[in-house]
């Protein structure tokens, strides 16, 4: 516990969370009133960045949180052509390595999604890395 607190104070990256190393995974459940017609993935960011991200995004969808990470619901496939920073955990089908995440934000609209491009750009900014897009493979003539 003390090592955790010291690493957070120093800003050094923590080793994998205990739940990740044990393989505990949870499927995030959206409120029944939400329409997830595009499928759901989740983007996990360190909890220390959560409030800053939420306050600067133009639109925030469903956000879940546990002690270590905040999980932002994005449309399925939001990892295509985006090089998410190392500090980010991208979870397909919103199947996340977490212990008891709870819904902390639900949007007023019926869609659960946070737009992935603004989220990507903000995550890069708080992580201190330049945004990087994967290069598309050009089709042969």
Task: Report the strand count.
Answer: 7
- Identify the strand order in the major beta sheet: 5-2-4-3-7
Query: SSE order in H/E notation?
Result: HHEEHEEEEEH
Q: Major beta sheet, specifics?
A: 5 strands, antiparallel
Rg for CA atoms: 16 Å
Low-confidence stretches: 1-21
How much of the residues is beta strand, in percent? Answer: 15-25%
Helical content class: 10-25%
C-alpha end-to-end distance: 58 Å
How would you describe the overall organization of this protein?
With 141 residues, this protein is an alpha+beta fold. The chain is 23% helix and 20% strand. The protein contains four helices and seven strands; from the N terminus they run H-H-E-E-H-E-E-E-E-E-H. A hairpin with a 3-residue loop joins strand 3 (63-65) and strand 4 (69-75). The longest helix is centred in the last third of the chain and has 12 residues, at 116-127. The N and C termini lie far apart (58 Å).
Q: Secondary-structure blueprint of this entry?
A:
Elements: H1 2-10, H2 18-22, E1 26-27, E2 40-46, H3 50-56, E3 63-65, E4 69-75, E5 89-91, E6 95-96, E7 102-105, H4 116-127
Antiparallel strand pairs: 1-6, 2-4, 2-5, 3-4, 3-7
